[in-house]
Amino acid sequence: MTWTIAALYRFVPIADLPAERAHLLAYLEARGVYGTLLLAGEGVNGTIAGAREAIDEVVTELDRRLGIRQGEVKFSQASVRPFVRLKVRIRPEIITMRAPEADPSVRVGTYVRPEDWNAVIDDPKVLVLDTRNRYETRVGTFANAVDPGIDSFTEFKAFVETELDPARHSKVAMFCTGGIRCEKASSFMLAKGFREVFHLKGGILQYLEDVPEAESRWNGECYVFDARTAVGPAVAEAEWHRCFGCGEPLTPEETKLATYEEGVSCLHCAERLLPARAEGLRMRHRQRQR
User: For residue 254, what are the domain limits?
Assistant: First the structure.
């Protein structure tokens, strides 16, 4: 079976979160869909996978209820099941930043279409900023992009406030995996006085799909949050693995090291892994293999 994956989000007010969650959970379960949907008062965000017909039905239902096609919806394919289970959860935010001033419904940066992105980042006056976490940037990033070196998106605020200056960085172009982090990041930077803030519409995934490889400024692959671990040009599956113990991306060579145990540990976490935790991971890995 070929799995169809839909990565989607929209900032839209949702009044009755428990009722919305109950309806969507039942709707997705009935169609054999897996993955995660996050619901908050500010909108919906998630990545789900299933048969193509099922995913089309779910997207149509999300559009009917939440106007998801007015936000972002991107499709790709996987040869193996990308998610183990289905989760529909209520959260305070659909992308956690903990910055009330970052409100995309009030202000947001200027969207740049993938086909126009190269011209923007080639401008020497533009600071190109990667808003993702360090384990994601290790897999790939745009040429000459600034890596904030963060471990979670909530740390992006401190990076902006300590390392960037609206007076010196008058033009900023940012990017992320699918676009949602840039919605909040651009809103935050505008609230902090940055004058011109651009962000890649549809994120890296849309860029990889739309821009021919010969014209691409992307170096490496793009980390994704499912069993594929990473994708390359045309959003094709790439040769990366993920450590189930710590979530770090691994090259094929790194899975051959003595520190690697499938489903348990890798060179990034083996030394700090406690025996009880290791045994729990082994048990979970055995259950997943059944």
Answer: 242-289
| Residue 114, domain CATH | 3.40.250.10
Number of domains the chain contains: 3
Angstrom distances, CA of residue 164 to CA of 121, 171, 172, 176, 192? 17, 11, 10, 18, 10
The string of pLDDT tens digits covering residues 171-211 is 999 999 999 999 999 999 999 999 999 999 999 999 999 99
Where helices occur in the chain by DSSP H, the ranges are 17-30, 52-66, 114-121, 134-137, 156-163, 180-191, 203-210, 275-289
Give the dihedral sign, CA 217/220/225/226.
positive
Do residue 132 and residue 191 come from a single domain?
A: yes
Is 233 exposed, middle or buried, given 0-12, 13-18 or 19+ CB atoms closer than 10 A? middle
* Active site members: 176
Residues 206 and 277 in one domain: no
Q: What is the pTM of this model?
A: 0.91
The Cα 162–Cα 167 span in angstroms is 13
Same domain, 277 and 203: no
